[in-house]
C-alpha cells in the first residue's frame, strides 16, 4: 500500500500544480510571458525557495525550541516563522525577474508570483504526501491531498502573486512606489500565510473544527479578491495597448482595425482581420511587444531609455516588414 501511495504522491503533487500553472499562464491573455522565464520562476519556487526555506526554518527553530520546547516551537513556527521565512524565499526570484524586459506591470507580477508559489506548493505537497504514504494510512493521505492541493498550495500561489503584483505596480513608477511595494506586498503575503496557519493551529490546539471551517471559508474569499484585482490589472494592460497603439495608427504605421483587434482578446483570436500572407501570431506578438516597449520607454530610467528606444524602432521595422508580406502575397 505504501508503495502505491508513494507513486500516487508524485502524481498528486505534480499534475494539479502543473495544471494550475498552465491556467495561470493562459489567463494572462494580452501579453503572455515567455515560457522559459515562466518555467524558471516555477522551478525556483519548487527547488531554490524550498531549500532556503528549510534552512531558514531550521535555524530559527533552534532558539525557539530551547525557550518554548518542541511542541510550543512547532506551533509558534507555523504561525510566525513559516510566513517570515517562506514568503521572502519564494519571492526572491521576483526581484530578478522584475528588472527584466519581460516584466511590465501588475498583471505580469501576478503571473510570475503565482508560478513561484505553485512551485513551492508542489514540493511542499510532495513532502507531506510522501510522509503520510509511508504510514499506509489511506484516509489520512487522501484528506491531506485534497486540503493541500485545493487550499494550502493555492494559498502559497495567492500570497506570492500579491508580492509580484505590488512589485509590478511599482515597476515603472518612482522609487517611493517601489519602497512602498515592499511592505504592502510582503505584509499582505505574510498576513495571508499567517492567517491560514494560525487558524489551522488554533483548531488543532483547541480541538475545535470551527477554526478549520473558517479557514476554508476565508481562503476562497481571498482568492476571489485577488482574482478581481488581477482582472483590473488585465484591464489596465488592455488600456495600455489601446493607448500606445493609437499613436501608431495616427502615424500611419498600423491600420486602425488591427489596433482594435490586438487590444481585444476575443478579436485577436479571430484570423479574419489579418491580411492574407501575414502570419497572425508573430504579427500579434510584434505589435503587442511594440506597445509594451513604448510604455516602458515612457517610464524608463535614463540608463534603460536608450535600450527601449532602440527596441521601439526595431519592432516598428518588424511590424512593417510583416505587413509587407500581405502586399507581396
Characterize the biggest β-sheet. Answer: none
| Proportion of residues in helical segments | over 70%
Q: Using DSSP, what is the number of strands?
A: 0
- For the CA atoms, what is the radius of gyration? 23 Å
Strand content: under 5%
Bulk shape = elongated
Number of helices in the DSSP assignment: 10
Order of helices and strands: HHHHHHHHHH
Brief characterization of the structure:
The protein is built from ten helices and no strands. With about 325 residues, it is mostly helical.
List keywords for this structure.
mainly alpha, 10 helices, 329 residues
List the helices and strands and how they pair.
Elements: H1 2-27, H2 35-98, H3 106-133, H4 138-170, H5 175-206, H6 209-250, H7 256-262, H8 265-268, H9 280-299, H10 302-328
Please describe what this structure looks like.
The protein has two domains: 2-236, no CATH class; 251-328, no CATH class. Helix content is 86%, strand content 0%. The protein has helices at 2-27, 35-98, 106-133, 138-170, 175-206, 209-250, 256-262, 265-268, 280-299, 302-328. Helix 3 packs antiparallel against helix 4, helix 6 packs antiparallel against helix 7 and helix 6 (209-250) packs across helix 9. It is elongated. The mean pLDDT is 90.
Amino acid at each position: 500500500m505504501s508503495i502505491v501511495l508513494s507513486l500516487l504522491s508524485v502524481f498528486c503533487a505534480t499534475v494539479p500544480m502543473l495544471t494550475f500553472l498552465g491556467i495561470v499562464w493562459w489567463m494572462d491573455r494580452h501579453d503572455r510571458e515567455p515560457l522559459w522565464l515562466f518555467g524558471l520562476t516555477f522551478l525556483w519556487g519548487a527547488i531554490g525557495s524550498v531549500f532556503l526555506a528549510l534552512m531558514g526554518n531550521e535555524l530559527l527553530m533552534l532558539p525557539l525550541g530551547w525557550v518554548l520546547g518542541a511542541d510550543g516551537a512547532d506551533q509558534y513556527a507555523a504561525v510566525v516563522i513559516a510566513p517570515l521565512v517562506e514568503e521572502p524565499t519564494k519571492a526572491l526570484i521576483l526581484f530578478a525577474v522584475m528588472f527584466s524586459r519581460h516584466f511590465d506591470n501588475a498583471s505580469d507580477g501576478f503571473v510570475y508570483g503565482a508560478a513561484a508559489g505553485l512551485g513551492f506548493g508542489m514540493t511542499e505537497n510532495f513532502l507531506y504526501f510522501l510522509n503520510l504514504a509511508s504510514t499506509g494510512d489511506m484516509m489520512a493521505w487522501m484528506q491531506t491531498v485534497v486540503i493541500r492541493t485545493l487550499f494550502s498550495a493555492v494559498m502559497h500561489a495567492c500570497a506570492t502573486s500579491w508580492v509580484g503584483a505590488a512589485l509590478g505596480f511599482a515597476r515603472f513608477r518612482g522609487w517611493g512606489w517601489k519602497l512602498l511595494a515592499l511592505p504592502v506586498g510582503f505584509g499582505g503575503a505574510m498576513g495571508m500565510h499567517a492567517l491560514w496557519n494560525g487558524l489551522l493551529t488554533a483548531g488543532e490546539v483547541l480541538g475545535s473544527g470551527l477554526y478549520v471551517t473558517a479557514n476554508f471559508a476565508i481562503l476562497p474569499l481571498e482568492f476571489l479578491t485577488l482574482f478581481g484585482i488581477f482582472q483590473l490589472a488585465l484591464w489596465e494592460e488592455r488600456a495600455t495597448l489601446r493607448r500606445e497603439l493609437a499613436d501608431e495608427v495616427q502615424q500611419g504605421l498600423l491600420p486602425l482595425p488591427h489596433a482594435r483587434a490586438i487590444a481585444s482578446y476575443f478579436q485577436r483570436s479571430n484570423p479574419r482581420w489579418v491580411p492574407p500572407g501575414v502570419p497572425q501570431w508573430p504579427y500579434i506578438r510584434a505589435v503587442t511587444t511594440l506597445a509594451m516597449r513604448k510604455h516602458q520607454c515612457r517610464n524608463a530610467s535614463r540608463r534603460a531609455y536608450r535600450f527601449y528606444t532602440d527596441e521601439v524602432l526595431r519592432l516598428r521595422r518588424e511590424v512593417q516588414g510583416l505587413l509587407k508580406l500581405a502586399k507581396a502575397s
